[in-house]
Amino acid sequence: MQTYDIALLLASSIIIIMICLPTVVWTLFLSTDISSPIYEKKMLSITIVGGVILFVFNSFGFFIISPVSYIVFVLFTYGVCNLFSFAKCFTADFQMKVSSWNIAKLFIIVGVILYPFSLLATSFVEEEHFIFYFIISMIYFTLLVRVVLNFIHYKFSESSNREKRHEVVANVQILKLDYPMSVPSLYNADLSLHFMMSEKRDQGIILSDGTNDKRFASNFIIIFISWFIFRLLRSFNATGDKWKDLIHLNQLLRESDGNEILICILIGLVIVLLLYRHLSPILVFLILTGIFGRHFPLIDKGVKSGLIESHFVYFGLFIFIFYNCIKVFYYNKIYIKKHEYNDPLVGTKLVLYMLQVFEIFFGLLFLLLQKPENVLVTSLSLLHMHLIIPLLIQNWESLGLTRMQVYIIALWIGQASFFIHGNSNSLSTVQINAGFVGVSSYRPVLHGILIACHTFGSKFLVLLHTLVVILTRKRDILRLYMCIRCWWMLQLLTLTVYVINVTLQRHHLFIWSVFAPKLLYEECNFLCLMILTVIVYLFIKITNCFSK
Fold it and tell me: Which residue among 274, 295, 457, 494 is the one 20 to 30 A from 27 at the CA level?
């Protein structure tokens, strides 16, 4: 295969996408009143014509294809259609119109379809982090829009239902005097209205006593803060080849006199202590003290500075695991058997506790392996996932998402966290020195494990925390299987498409500098997901044995 065949392959794939994607979009996401066949044909023709125009203009501009321009055009057309639809909401049928405004689903489906095919080009592989930065940021924006529209919908529904209730009560009072036999039917109408409000209240749409206002406000604030933290994290490390010469925050911290790094480390350790204080807070505090001593040792020993502190952290992590394992298999088992012997969720609670212990253990180990300027990055990344993932899992229905889409967002957040920590699809960004933290002799297996934990630990932590939140909210092991199966589906799709791509482009000029390292990273992601699956499976089997 010659190099010019790549452009033909990409052009043919984009043409197929230009035909299939609008059909999927206009079929799945348009509201019922404007999804007639005539309307869909108009939108389909407008989108295809617009895509052809963009293709022609980009060809004249010496760009062979520009799929990003076409995708933006599709999203813009869809957004304009929903904007006009939303404008009509203030006149009639507010609820049906607002339900159609959910562009977050569009971004998720477009991301799932186009992400594997974006890896066919070297530029997309080198700058893959921008894809996840863009998708995650736009999902946050659309979720904020969704929360605002839900709040407006709630206010309109509250006022209209209040008027209906007052009208029914007034009619009942009048007919009590004139037509006593009609009163039961009116009472039934009032009762049906009450049941309708109760059903919406159970779905999380309408709450009472001002609770809904607080819920909308808290959701908006959490999403906005998560978006702000995510945008701040992007500025710490520069990855990829584009804008590599620009100054980033970690570079400024390295060039400072040390006081700024000290403040950042203290802030980061305080954040981690607040997040992990629910299990063995004294041990967690001592381990964090050792992590601080590793970066600022009390005794300067030259090359071996921080070695004793690192050994102290490893010993503290061992004590943490040993103590909590005893607590799980003896104390918790006896307590649960004594007080909740007939509870069918005994095994689920033990699995949840073991996952929480392993999450804290791995999070502290990952924090130990970081460079001084990356401690705050790791802490903010942990805070970010502790804010947004519980919100998505708890409020997925009110946000207009499905469980599968929430799991996909969690996987993308993990992949974005991988790039946030300074990693890329190049082997040059692998931190070899992380494998020698607290290790004074040459042990290749241990070095490899520590380097792997440092490189892929951020994504692993996000996936692990997602499983913990799922079990915390819904004590159902089947939800874990559903989530892991969704991740496997996406990972296998990406890996399959990319292996075919590498096979077809094995004679490409950048096969060893771009495509081969990315294939290695995808295989490592596959391995990380396999390790996570095995860990969950072992925890479930162990708890089933001890809970009998």
Answer: 494
